[in-house]
Amino acid sequence: MSGVHGGPLLYDPDREAPADWGAVQDRLAPLAVRYGAWRSSEIRRRLARAGISPEDVRDVAGLAGIPVLAKDDLPALQAADPPFGGMLAVPPGTLRRVYRSPGPINDPEGRRDDFWRMAPAVWAAGFRPDDVVLNTFSYHLTPGGMMLDSGLRAVGCAVIPGGVGNTAAQIDVARAAGATGYTGTPQFLLTLLERARETGRKLPFRRALVTGAPLPPPLRELLQGEFGVDVYQAYGTADAGTIGHECEAKDGWHVSIEIVVEVLVPGEDRPAADGEAGQVVVTSPNEVYPLVRFGTGDLSAWNREPCRCGRTGPRLAGFLGRVGEGVKVKGMFVHPREL
Predict the structure, then answer these.
(1) Measuring CA to CA, which residue among 103, 68, 63 is closest to residue 83?
(2) Judging by DSSP bridges, how do beta strands 105-109 and 132-135 pair with one another?
(3) N or C of the chain: less Cβ packing under 10 Å?
(4) How far apart are CA 23 and CA 133, in angstroms?
(5) What long-range pairs does 212-215 form, CB within 8 A, spacing at least 24?
(6) Domains in the chain, start-ordered, CATH in brackets?
């Protein structure tokens, strides 16, 4: 199944609701390790230090002997082996864009449309072709703006590249363009809605896809109940792309079908039991930036109860905290070394 306008996959029940989710994950894990070992010197070095051959990994359980690469290690890794620490699988000149995130961390964008796989999250949040959406993530150096922008355009939306700040101007353009959608942090959405109300105006937002900051239940209730905005959450990183997103049930983040996700207990790196907090660790066969056991630094937990939307995979139970040094400020990670 192709997406709107022949674009990327959005929601395909045959693919997003496989009869055996574990079997899908078990096929992805060795694919990612073998491709990564072929194209990424960082992955080759890590496997060699662990005494593991790519052929030794036959399923998700086979990843267990591979040390986790922490996101906090990327600045030093990239400084020692610029520009991407040996993690890039293609020549830098073949990329579409190169970004600079706090850390500092260099982030690549490949030439494939919707490189970060955001379109399924956009679609699940109810955005449709011809919607006008105000995107308030930064378009300057950091990839957040383009991560959402590419997913919105893949669905067929018109995007207002609002970026960060400039509240009054963003209210004006959203009203003038009739923007029915919003993407950004939930806190800035509340700021826009309250500021508009203070000046006797109403924003036309009907739905929002938020990420980059926690969404406490009282804040969601306020946005939906008092302002009438239907709020959905997505979760991802510049390194791993979209990791999970909510469906209409709004009961956790459905894991992307294109990556392997483990939840590992910090300090032990053993698989967390259902409901037990652990670090979200991603393995991805991305053709540009393959990852093997990449530790996001985010804590979550597994929810394996069936979801009424029909997707069969497990869900992440939301954001439960951080491990490591990085903290999020206005949707971007900041590290103590940068202060």
Answers:
(1) 103
(2) unpaired
(3) C
(4) 37
(5) 212/137, 212/144, 212/184, 212/185, 212/328, 212/330, 212/331, 212/332, 213/185, 213/186, 213/187, 213/328, 213/330, 213/331, 214/186, 214/319, 215/186
(6) 4-338 (3.40.50.12780)
Between CA 316 and CA 272 the distance in angstroms is 12
Instruction: Provide CB contacts within 8 A for 46, sequence distance 6+.
Output: 66, 67, 69, 292
Of how many residues is the chain composed?
A: 339
Place of tokens 């937990």: 301
Could you tell me which of 16, 74, 17 has the C-alpha nearest to residue 42?
74
Q: What is the pLDDT of residues 300-338, one digit of tens each?
A: 999 999 999 888 889 999 999 999 664 554 444 443 433
- Answer yes or no: are the C-beta atoms of 252 and 232 closer than 8 Å: no
Pairing state between β 253-255 and 321-322: unpaired
> Do 164 and 136 touch, CB atoms closer than 8 A?
yes
Q: Say what the pTM is.
A: 0.91
Distance set, CA 198 to CA 176, 185, 190, 195, 226 (Å): 18, 20, 12, 5, 14
Using the CB atoms, write b or e for 90-107: b if 16+ within 10 Å: eeeeebeeebebbbebbb
Q: Which pair of structure tokens corresponds to residue 237?
A: 């990183």
